[in-house]
Amino acid sequence: MCGATEGGLPLDGINTKIEAIIQGQVTKDGSPVGVAYVRLLDKSGEFTAEVPVSATGHFRFFAGDGEWTLRTLAPGADTVDRKVIAAVGSIAEVEIAL
Amino acid sequence: MAREDVLVTTQWVEENLDNPQVVLIEVDEDTSAYDRSHIRGAIKLDWTTDLQDQVRRDFVNKAQFEALLSDKGVANDSTVVLYGGNNNWFAAYAYWYFKLYGHQDVKLLDGGRKKWELDARELTDEPVKLESTTYTASEQDLSIRAFRDDVVAAIGVQNLVDVRSPDEFAGRLLAPAHLPQEQAQRAGHVPTAVSVPWSKAANDDGTFRSNDELKAIYTEAGFDFSKDTIAYCRIGERSSHTWFALQELLGEPNVKNYDGSWTEYGSLVGVPIALGDEPGEA
């Protein structure tokens, strides 16, 4: 897990200087959620990407500079929207509690 | 073609898990997803190894496709039901691929693996091996496949539909935002292409929107239903999703998928490229 944030997805082989990374973890009642989908919407609300979370609830996007929305869908939970600001050369960490 | 001829629901799949006529196939961008878990009885197709020639950039040929399906246990009269992650991007790609080689009875699981998971339906990691068959494919149906010269000739003449995200269309991103952005090719879009992101055709749960909604979306985007159409994206999988919506759901004739898509077009020497949010001039 060289280069990873604690407990998160590895950043091996990724040039973080040129990427605007948005990543985080989906939890419910304090525990990681292993089945959930996180969608990345652009500033106009348009779909840009979607990933299933890892077994530990983690997700990551390579976005661009600006404001984005993370929309999380999971079985038996309401949809959760979270705004996030991304910037090239930085990692925006987002914790999503269902 | 009726919607139920080409789309089945998660409930239909659950009710047909033990139907020997039905061959359920998972196709994912993440080719390891199936190995972790899959719908009971489903077999796997790996788009990187099973569906791509391993030397040149092209599909497997007719003989290779026949050998593949024979080995996997798909018969010519099987009802093939495809599903996968990423809102069925690669399942739609495989659907188009099966049509390219003439398989008659092929359907998509509406919503794909995501809908199945959001329904909290059962997945298993049990291996599946079907009895082999003798599969016979048709020659490629090139009425549904576009090549680079078709795309260049279509500028300002046919509907060109760019189904990537708005930022990829405009040239602000080179790949979907869940993938690293380092790429060799130029950013932008084919001049005169309208931007209709594939995602507009799908609901949040991955199911396709109704035909009335689809028609409204393409009409609003400036799509001319009287013209032939070429859809493209980055590598041809998201545009398979749009090809499915236009040809299989809306019944539009003469819709082609350009599988070379932006990774080919954006690397060509001397072809026109438009930047920004507008289609641009021919």
TrEMBL record, chain A:
<dbReference type="Pfam" id="PF07210">
    <property type="entry name" value="DUF1416"/>
</dbReference>
<dbReference type="InterPro" id="IPR010814">
    <property type="entry name" value="DUF1416"/>
</dbReference>
<protein>
    <submittedName>
        <fullName>DUF1416 domain-containing protein</fullName>
    </submittedName>
</protein>
UniProtKB/TrEMBL annotation, chain B:
<feature type="domain" description="Rhodanese">
    <location>
        <begin position="18"/>
        <end position="125"/>
    </location>
</feature>
<protein>
    <recommendedName>
        <fullName>Sulfurtransferase</fullName>
    </recommendedName>
</protein>
<keyword id="KW-0808">Transferase</keyword>
<dbReference type="InterPro" id="IPR051126">
    <property type="entry name" value="Thiosulfate_sulfurtransferase"/>
</dbReference>
<dbReference type="Pfam" id="PF00581">
    <property type="entry name" value="Rhodanese"/>
</dbReference>
<feature type="domain" description="Rhodanese">
    <location>
        <begin position="160"/>
        <end position="274"/>
    </location>
</feature>
<keyword id="KW-0677">Repeat</keyword>
<dbReference type="InterPro" id="IPR001763">
    <property type="entry name" value="Rhodanese-like_dom"/>
</dbReference>
<dbReference type="InterPro" id="IPR001307">
    <property type="entry name" value="Thiosulphate_STrfase_CS"/>
</dbReference>
<dbReference type="InterPro" id="IPR036873">
    <property type="entry name" value="Rhodanese-like_dom_sf"/>
</dbReference>
<dbReference type="GO" id="GO:0004792">
    <property type="term" value="F:thiosulfate-cyanide sulfurtransferase activity"/>
</dbReference>
